[in-house]
Amino acid sequence: MQRVMKYRVLIITAMVLTAACISCTKNNPSQSIRMEINQAMQAQQDAWNRGDVEAFMQYYWNDDSLLFIGLKGPTYGWKTTLDNYKRGYDTPEKMGVLTFHNHRIDSLGPDAANVFGEWKIQRTTKTIGGYYTLLWSRKDQQWKITQDHTN
What we know:
With 151 residues, the protein is α+β, with helices and mostly antiparallel strands. It has five helices and six strands.
């Protein structure tokens, strides 16, 4: 009888803790933001690895105010950024296989987040990589990169 009571207490305790954890995740907007941005970046990575630069760019803010800072300095605009990607990665060999690794995603409020991480493109001849800081902003209910500083 005592053994049955102990199991019931353990089961009830486990159920309460599980419910509390689920509630914390649902009520923690920064956790939701991190999850949404990670999903967007996974979709970007998948698009790149399919060779689809246009789909990769769908996660950038399609606006003249988009700021991209690369090795050659700052450039502005979605179209300019797209053209630069197409010019610099104009063959499947140059595109290689992209991987992102986010070290930090910091919520800046309900509609903005700062992401710090590193990227790597594995090629048959030479692997390249570096670091990025991305400012993600919610635009028309969708997360978009509004500033990208990649080296």
